[in-house]
Structure formats: structure tokens, C-alpha cells
């Protein structure tokens, strides 16, 4: 289990507290520091620029997200709290993270009744929380929809999130290029997605298959997991047992990747290379070491939570992004998915979140 020992240490660190991944994409909102634990000074925050750096009217931002039972979600909450602390004109009213849909709806209703100025919501299920988000909007409380999108644009003022389709494209392009460079013909390309019923998973898989198809390739064995260590290990074990040969593997999520790599080690398989997803610090350290199957990961930055807090502040104070000509904050912001390899890992390593 040599290649996963460091990742398991990272998993234990997450039980104490999450961390975060840095990203580019919204120049006026980004600016990051390293993170090794769940402290404000180690989260991804921006101090702003231009007129937006100056304090405005005092506002209260309500924040709701799922339970931090996953390294990426832990980083989301860490970043949101740390970014709010940067602004002297922001009071953050954060609910306790939960995966109980009824409880999250109730928590958001409480924030609405408390009269917060603006809401930042990462819904456990976008469809299920659409109605309560619309209730907030109807009450004159702008909603910043973070990552998992609500069913109706009437439920949010601005959406900000990662590029799930682009994430799949990035993984597919990297795999296709590496196989071509290695002279591999008729490759067997495996895929371990997250929860298959989620639109984000479907978008990632569509981007992956489209990118491979453009290179004249196709997805081979595919076994879904559920974004957890345990399901990642189970899915990988089943896939490896069914496929005696694999040339490349894309695992959608670096947190479930802990289990995937455990199964790979247990099976003694190393004839293929693997690409991860999201950009955890643990996976980036494996990429840097370059002595195992992991050769790349494609980012899905939880620093989007920091940007969401900044967007909420600007919307509530009637400001806009400092580099835009328009008077208003955009209604949609999609962050780019970068491909991290041993050639650029040092640029991204300090932004990795703990799995």
C-alpha cells in the first residue's frame, strides 16, 4: 500500500478539519495561501482589489452547505468562513452542515426569517432546495447558488461553480495524448465516476467520452462509486476483477480515489496510468513523486466558496466586479478545470485540499 499511505494520512487529517484548493478564473475574486489544516490563515481567500477592497455597508451573509464528510466539502466550508473573516463589513451566519434535506431546507428558512441580506447556498440536492431558494428570492434576499445548481434560474441571483463537462474533457484529452505519445493502439480506457444519478457526474462522463471520441477512442469498463473512500475501493476492486487489462483509468474524485488506489495496490496492478479529479493535496503529492500509477488530476476548485462569499458581498452592497465594465455582478460564473501533471504540480500543490 505504498502509494496510498500518504493519502490515508491525509484522510486522518481531514477528520480533524478540511482544507482547500486554489483556482484561477475570476481575477477580481481570487488570491490564495497554502493550507494544511482547518484554519483561516490556511484557507483560500482574497483581500480584493481596487474600490471593492474598501469596506462598504455592513451586511449579513447566510451560508448553508452539506455536512463536511468529504475533503472537498470540508474545504468549501473552510474557505467560506475564512473569506468572510477577511471583510470587516461582513457578518457570516452559517448553519451547521447537513445531508438531511429537510433539515437544510429548515435551516435556510431560518436564515430567511432572520432577515439576512444575502444567501450563499450549496444545496445537498439542487432540485429539493429550489423551492426554498425561490422563497428567499421572492422575499428580496439574493441567493448565490454554489456548485450544485437549483432547478430554476428564478431561485438564484448568481450561480458559481466548476466546469463538470470541462473536467471530463480535460481528463479525456490528457489520456488520449498520453496514450498516443506512448504508441498504445486499441487502448482499454476505464472510468470510475461518482454518483451516477447526479447531473454533475453525467456531465463529467459526457465530457470524458466526447474528448475520447474526438481522438478516435472510447470508454471501456465503467463502474460508478459514490464519492466515498469505501465505495471507491469497492468499485475499483470490481472493475479490476472484470478487466484483466487496462491502459488508462479516470477516477472522477480524489477523495474516493483513496479507496480506488487501495484496491489497485491490493490487486497488484500497475500496467496502466490513472488520472484523478478535483485536485487534492494527497493526489498532487503522488503526482510529484511520480512513482505510482497516478500521473495527473483535473481540478474542481473548492475555492469557489471564497469567491461565492465575495460575490454575495458585492451583490448585497450593490457593487460589481472591479474589472468589468457592466454595473452588475454576472448571473453565472464557471471556473476552469486545469490539468495538473508533474510538470506543473509545484504551481498547484500549495492549493491542494486534504482528502
Automatic annotation (TrEMBL):
Q: Where in the cell is it found?
A: Cell envelope
Q: Which GO terms describe its cellular component?
A: cell envelope
Q: Where is this region: Disordered?
A: 32-51
Domain Periplasmic binding protein residue range list: 61-319
> Which GO molecular function entries does the Swiss-Prot or TrEMBL record give?
carbohydrate binding
Provide the alphabetized UniProt keywords: Signal
The domain of life for this entry's organism is Bacteria
- Span-the-membrane segments of this chain are none
Q: Coiled-coil ranges per the record? A: none
Q: Which family does it belong to?
A: Belongs to the bacterial solute-binding protein 2 family.
User: What is the protein name given in its UniProt record?
Assistant: Substrate-binding domain-containing protein
Q: Which organism is it from?
A: Frankia nepalensis
